[in-house]
């Protein structure tokens, strides 16, 4: 039975300000391989994630065998078990202590009897030519290729009716790709496959249908043969021709009658051999260049928030200027003793926030949440008063001082505003620019022989790693949710997912740190080699405007402090 996608729209956020997928209607048949193709950013992965029930903020529905995946905002868990999604680089999904643990985790949601679990594990291991002895090994000691095979085996072990694969050929060598294709060809005799890919040369020849995506919409739903006879579709949607098509086009241009249905380099070669051997006169060149495309409706560009919007000047502003403005405003904020000044500073923070790209604003919102929770708890506990004197009735022992709570709130709010503005600057500045900026700002400390370069590096790394930690945490939570078939409704991170992915998350972060340190060593950081640090300059019109506005805010803050 097919999967039907009906009017599916995926919004970028809860406020529904932009869309990632736009009113998608399509059907994929079981026992077939359907390719999802489109240039980078066209929405392929989001479509796969929606089929696997992993997207939030959606409109429309996905039907498995005519049954809706979402019912009144909740996911039908039984339907979730009908598909399994392999993210790009599936080896990054591994997180158990042993390979056996990986299988246990992937199969747990299916509640199978133990003998059946063992059978499926053994079959999947065999399918990937993996010896049974690997089951007791840690997946982290395996080579990259072995990890990939273990990951694919754990994905296939549940033997779900649907296999959803995101870029499965990325990073595979020739023989591994050939094996994967063989396996998929076998798989589709019994089950359905939806596969998002850029590797058309590999998968078009074995696919049954193709969904062509552009700007979050399915703009054509056709067979591979139809696509081969209308290669301009690939050009129009920015994907580009496959290697076989390029060869065929060149041969046609050279005057050879290559028919448009030759799908693979081998078929082009076969046709060529035949035509050359028996080619008596002038070939009939059939150009495909101007053929009207079948069923292709160019997509309207997505609504603004989903497209990469134009970056504001804050992203290109001199980092040293940013640090100076930051210090100026921070001093102004720290000096405040009344709410009046803090409101003015909040206005400045809001101005800075408005300059961020929507995706960075979302990141900042996520980063601020724990801080706000901490503030709320700290304010509440600071207001609690307990009396221990004798003879006081127990009902009067506990009180709440609004005054102390308000004072704590004011102090923490000062800290919150400084952090908020700092995060705006962090999110809009690259690590190397941030480090350079800090070095200039800390220059006066050099006179007292303070290690300003190391200080600058440490500060910028800490700030840079906050977004990285958040992104990695969300990525692992999504993987844990997909593999464990969790249906927690709010946000990508559920409490039950946390213990599962903590270790791989830490490993991944350590790897990121190691790579960063290596890259920095190669660039001469930390080896003591002198770095050229340019002077602070407010170059553009907007840079000067920013300095002016910040200075005005600073003097307003000072004025408020003095008048208070
Ligand atoms: N949570 C989100 N908020 C805002 N925009 C998003 C979000 N998730 C994805 N996008 C944007 O939606 C678009 C589609 O993303 P998606 O990952 O589905 O594309 P894709 O076709 O799979 O790309 P690629 O081929 O590069 O993997 C991209 O422009 C991406 O930046």
UniProtKB/TrEMBL annotation:
SMART domains: AAA. The chain crosses the membrane at residues 341-358, 370-392, 412-431, 498-518, 545-563. One of its GO terms (cellular component) is ATP-binding cassette (ABC) transporter complex. Keywords: ATP-binding, Cell membrane, Membrane, Nucleotide-binding, Translocase, Transmembrane, Transmembrane helix, Transport. It comes from the Bacteria. One of its GO terms (molecular function) is ATP hydrolysis activity. This is ABC transporter.
